[in-house]
Write a structure and sequence with these properties.
Blueprint (H helix, E strand, L loop, with lengths): L1 E7 L7 H8 L5 E4 L8 E5 L2 E5 L12 E4 L4 E2 L1 H13 L8 E4 L3 E2 L2 H11 L15 H10 L6 H4 L4 H18 L4 H5 L3 H15 L3 E2 L1 H10 L3 E5 L26 H5 L6 E9 L2 E3 L12 H9 L12 E3 L1 E2 H11 L3 E5 L9 E10 L2 E3 L6 H6 L1 E8 L16 H14 L3 E5 L7 E3 L13
Bound molecules: inosinic acid.
Length: 441
C-alpha cells in the first residue's frame, strides 16, 4: 500500500480540504485522524460549496471509504447535522463512512468548560479557542476518569456511565463558576437521552477502524491521511500554549490513525503563499495595517468554523521550514497564489531578529517568538491575475520567481500550486510526479 499525508504547515486554514477532495479519487481510503469540529474544511465542487468539520473530505467521492480514527474527538450532534446536511444534497455517508469505536466524545460539559477556558487569560492573552469543546475533551481523554468513547455509546452500561460523569461534571463546573444555564444543559437525564439518540442514529457506522486500516495497509490499498489544523498549532511542537490539543503536525498521523510509521510514504505539506492565524498567540509576520486588511479581503480570510476574521501576514519561511522538517514533507503545495497577484512588492521572512541576534531556528517559548522581529527579503510583485493559469508555463515570471524563492528557503520542491478555490484552479508541477500522484487529466 501507499500512504500519503496532507499536512498544514502554518496555523491551519491552508486549504487542505480542497487538495484532499482533489486527490481523493486516486485513493481507496481517506482518513481523518486528529482534531474535531474545530476544523473547517471547505470544498468547492462545481457550483456547490461544502463546509466539512468532522467528515473526511473524501466523502464527495462515493467509491472512497472514509475513516474517522481514534485520535479524533467527535461531537455526535455536530457530526449528525453534517451527515444530514450532506444527505439533503444527495451525499449519503452510511455506506462509506466508518467511525472508530475508540474515538472520544465531545460532551455538552466540554462545551461549557471551553467557554471558561476562553474567558481565562493564559500569559496575558486568551487562547481564543473555537469553542467546540476540543481542549476539555482531550484533557478528559488523557485524564481518563471522565472520558466517554464511541464504544461506550453501544454498551449496556451507557446510561449509568453517562449519568455518573454528568453528576461529577456538574459539581466540577459549578466550582469553576459555570453559569446556571450551562449546568442545566448537562442535567444527567437530558444527556443520557441525548446519548441514546446518538447511538441509535450512528448505529452501523461505528466500528473498528484500526483493523480496517491495518488490513488496508497490509493489502495494496492507497490511503490518504487528512490532517486538520496546522503544524504550528501542534500541542507538542507548536506555539504552546496558543495551540490546539492534538498533534496536528506530520508526527501525529501514526498515533491518531493507528498506523505504523512504515506505511507512510509521501507527505504533502500545504501552506498559503502568505500566512494567517485565528485566535491568540504570537505571529511574527502579522500585518496589522492596510496591507493585512487587503490580504484578508482578497483571500476572504474569515474562519470556516467561527466566522472570525483571520489575522494576516507575509510568508514566514522560518516557521514553514521548521514545520516541513518536523512533518517529513516531501513536496509543498503552495495555495492562494491568486491573492498575491495585486501587490507591487511582496515580503518573505527569511530569519528572525531576537534580542539583537539573528535567529534562523523556530524558538520554543511563546514569549521569545513574540519578541522575534521578522527579517524580510523583498520580492517584486507580479501584479497580474493568475486565476486563469492552468500550467506552470502560464505563470508570470514574477510569480515563478516567488515560488522558486520559497522552495529554496524551505528546502523542499513545490509540487502543487493553487490559484483559486475551484478544482480546476490547481496546477501540478513536474515535482508532483515524484509524489506518486497522477496529475489531473
Ligand atoms: P481549539 O482547537 O478550539 O482548542 O483552539 C485552539 C487554537 O487553535 C485557537 O487559536 C483556534 O483558533 C485554533 N484552531 C483550532 N482549529 C483550527 C482550524 O481548523 N483552523 C485554524 N485555527 C484553528
Amino acid at each position: 500500500m501507499a500512504g500519503t499525508c496532507v499536512i498544514g504547515l502554518q496555523w491551519g486554514d491552508e486549504a487542505k480540504g480542497k487538495l484532499v477532495d482533489l486527490l481523493a479519487p486516486q485513493f481507496d481510503l481517506v482518513v481523518r485522524y486528529q482534531g474535531g469540529a474545530n476544523a473547517g474544511h471547505t470544498v468547492v465542487a462545481g457550483d456547490e460549496t461544502y463546509k466539512l468539520h468532522h467528515i473526511p473530505s473524501g466523502i464527495l467521492h462515493p467509491q472512497v471509504q472514509n475513516l474517522i480514527t481514534p485520535g479524533v474527538v467527535i461531537n455526535p450532534s455536530t457530526m449528525l447535522n453534517e451527515i444530514d446536511g450532506l444527505a439533503e444534497r444527495g451525499i449519503y455517508c452510511r455506506e462509506n463512512l466508518r467511525i472508530s469505536e475508540r474515538a472520544h466524545l465531545v460532551m455538552p460539559w466540554h462545551m461549557a468548560e471551553d467557554k471558561i477556558i476562553n474567558a481565562t487569560a493564559v500569559r496575558g492573552e486568551s487562547i481564543g479557542t473555537t469553542n467546540r469543546g476540543i481542549g476539555p475533551c482531550y484533557r478528559d481523554k488523557v485524564g481518563r476518569t471522565h472520558a466517554i468513547r464511541m464504544t461506550d455509546l453501544v454498551q449496556s452500561t451507557r446510561d449509568d456511565r453517562i449519568a455518573t460523569v454528568a453528576k461529577q461534571k456538574i459539581e466540577l463546573l459549578r466550582n469553576m463558576g459555570a453559569p446556571k444555564e450551562d449546568l442545566d444543559a448537562i442535567a444527567p437525564d437530558q444527556v443520557v437521552s441525548l446519548a441514546a439518540s446518538w447511538a441509535e442514529r450512528l448505529d452501523g457506522m461505528i466500528g473498528d477502524t484500526t483493523e480496517l486500516l491495518l488490513d488496508a495497509c497490509e493489502g495494496d490499498s492507497k490511503i490518504l491521511f487528512e490532517g486538520a489544523q496546522g503544524a504550528l498549532l501542534d500541542i507538542d511542537h507548536g506555539t504552546f500554549p496558543f495551540v490546539t490539543s492534538s498533534n496536528s503536525s506530520g508526527v501525529g498521523v501514526c498515533a491518531g490513525a493507528g498506523v505504523p510509521p512504515r506505511w507512510i510514504h509521501q507527505v504533502l505539506g500545504v501552506c498559503k503563499a502568505y500566512s494567517t492565524r485565528v485566535g491568540g498567540g504570537p505571529f511574527p509576520t502579522e500585518l496589522e495595517d492596510a496591507t493585512g486588511d487587503r490580504i484578508r479581503k482578497l483571500g476572504n480570510e474569515f474562519g470556516t468554523t467561527t466566522g472570525r476574521p483571520r489575522r494576516c501576514g507575509w510568508f514566514d519561511a522560518v516557521a514553514v521550514r521548521y514545520t516541513a522538517r518536523l512533518s517529513g514533507v516531501t513536496r509543498l503545495a503552495l495555495m492562494m497564489m491568486d491573492v498575491l497577484s495585486h501587490f507591487d512588492e511582496l515580503k518573505v521572512c527569511v530569519a528572525y531578529e531576537l534580542d539583537g541576534h539573528r535567529l534562523e531556528r523556530f524558538p520554543c517559548h511563546a514569549e521569545e517568538l513574540r519578541r522575534c522581529k521578522p527579517v524580510y527579503e523583498t520580492i517584486a510583485g507580479w501584479n497580474s491575475p493568475v486565476d486563469d493559469v492552468r500550467t506552470v508555463g502560464d505563470f508570470p515570471a514574477g510569480a515563478l520567481a516567488y515560488v522558486r524563492r520559497i522552495e529554496e528557503l524551505v528546502g523542499i520542491p513545490v509540487g502543487v500550486l493553487s490559484v483559486g478555490p475551484d478544482r480546476a484552479q490547481t496546477i501540478f508541477t513536474d515535482a508532483a510526479s515524484e509524489l506518486a500522484l497522477e496529475p489531473l487529466a
